[in-house]
Amino acid sequence: MLISDVLTEIFEYLDDRDEIIGSQKTFRSLYSCLLVNRRWCESAVSILWRSPFHRCHKRGGKILVQTLLNCLNVEEREDLYDDGICLPFNKSDCPIFDYPNFLKNLDYYQMILYVRSWCTSVLNVNSDQYVVATLRSLLRLFAGRSASLSTLTIRSAGLDDDKFSLLASPEIHSLIKPVKHLTISCYFPRDTLLIALAKNCRNLHSIRINNLSSYDEMSIQNAKKLCTLIESQRGLKQIIFSRCKAFINIILPSLSKQKRTLKHIGFHGINFEDCCKWDALKSCTKLEKLDIRDCYNMDFNMISPLFKSHHRNLKDVGIHSCEPFEVNDELEAWAYMINCRRRRRNSSSSSSS
Fold first, then answer.
1. Alpha-carbon distance 146 to 71, whole Å?
2. What's the CA gap between 276 and 303, in Å, rounded?
3. Taking the CB of residue 126, how many other CB atoms lie within 10 A of it?
């Protein structure tokens, strides 16, 4: 094994450890590695820059955006100039590495915040026109430098729909097409984005849906678009719903389209009021893990298909603090039976070996 491969293994460990710690002092170990020598720098820089918008605080976000903009060539800067942003080209400002190419994980909401901060402090303007223009240039930059996204996080309160619509632009399809892990939080962005995701991101391994609570007609239509996104996947393995107060009745039946591939389903803090029967869960015969916690407004009729299912691959069932309590108790008894079956199988395997 080459020494660069060994260094990468070590730096991957440091990166994983720092993410678990999650304090303000995280990633200092990797930053220190940049200063040892060129070989260490080359091995560490790709890891640090694969999640750039996750790693820095607000003050560092402006520097991050400026560093990425410094990667633009003359032609790309002219596009910004046409949008009213003058970014002079200076060879001394050009970064040593092609940082955009390293991008793997994108928190788009965080990116919007940092771009807005850069526009305010560097351009001395607080206009959405310049924020959108800068975001567009950066997304084009990522796509043009062959960045291959693995994780995409979309968090919106419905106030930045014009900025989220940029992700649906045909010129950046190559950027979002490889995404394997998608998180959608809060208010749905415009349905153009959901349509684009359903069309271009068809190889998702996991989807996480958080904080859905709006009840207006547009949100209902977008929930149906989200169903299309789920149904369009070729091999979805995991889906998690968290703190959703609406739409679960609309979305749940779409899981049956992934019945041959889904291995992990999670419900965390879900309002199941007027929810349909869980026939879609019953149909997921490859299911290995089911996690239901802090959910409410559940009833026996809704969960009854679970007790008639033949989930032979189911190994891990977690039921915690659901309401009403009698439904929780029934689910816990069923979970106990499933988990005991798993322990018996493990015991038999150990004895035979």
1. 14
2. 9
3. 10
Q: Residue 1 pLDDT > 60, yes or no?
A: no
In the chain, the amino acid numbered 265 is: I
DSSP per-residue letters across 190-253: -HHHHHHHHHH----SEEEEE-----SHHHHHHHHHHHHHHHT-SS--EEEEES--S-HHHHGG
Encode pLDDT of 289-304 as tens digits: 999 999 999 999 999 9
Alpha helical stretches, state H, the chain: 3-21, 28-33, 38-48, 52-55, 58-69, 74-82, 108-122, 128-144, 161-164, 173-176, 191-200, 217-231, 248-251, 279-283, 300-307, 325-352
d(CA 170, CA 190): 16
> What is the CB neighbour count within 10 angstroms for residue 346?
11
Is a pLDDT exceeding 60 seen at residue 278? Answer: yes
Instruction: Kindly report whether the peptide bond that precedes residue 253 is cis, defined as omega within 30 degrees of 0.
Output: no
CB 135: neighbour CB atoms within 10 A? Answer: 23
pTM, 2 dp: 0.89
101: tokens are 């190419």
DSSP state of 321: S
Across the chain, what does the average pLDDT equal?
Answer: 86
Q: Is the peptide bond before 100 cis (omega within 30 degrees of 0)?
A: no
Residue 81 and residue 69: Cα distance in Å, rounded? 13
Distance between CA 244 and CA 207 in Å, rounded? 14
* Residue 21 host element (H or E): helix 3-21
Burial of 311 (0-12, 13-18, 19+ CB in 10 A): middle
Q: Which residues contact 149 (CB under 8 A, 6 or more apart)?
A: 103, 104, 105, 106, 175, 176, 178, 179
As a whole number, mean pLDDT of residues 244-272 equals: 95
